[in-house]
Amino acid sequence: MFPKAIIQNVVSTAQILNKNKKLDLYSLSNIIKNAKYSPERFSALIIKVEQPLRSTALVFSNGKIVCVGTKSVKDSEIAIRNFVKLISKANCSSINMQSFKILNIVSSFVSRDI
């Protein structure tokens, strides 16, 4: 019998804007709690949340969002939806999640034979 894999991290991505639109990451960083934006170091706005799901989003001005830190595919999709709501509320406009996909799943297992 094979050991059960334990998911450590799920990385997912989604597009949240149409192609010709841009997000103002400076203004979002001033409005959203726990958001950090240092364009001289990294081109994305970084948003970290602890509730309802501990996760981190990397939000790019072209509307691409990358979510890391969740422990399941379902939680990753929920986390991105929560980030979209947060950004939509701060941006005062309707933003939709498009083209959600899983990029990577990191897992581990314990082998009793070693």
UniProtKB/TrEMBL annotation:
Keywords: DNA-binding, Transcription. GO terms for molecular function: DNA binding. One of its GO terms (biological process) is DNA-templated transcription initiation. Belongs to the TBP family. This is TATA-box-binding protein. It comes from Meloidogyne incognita (Southern root-knot nematode worm).
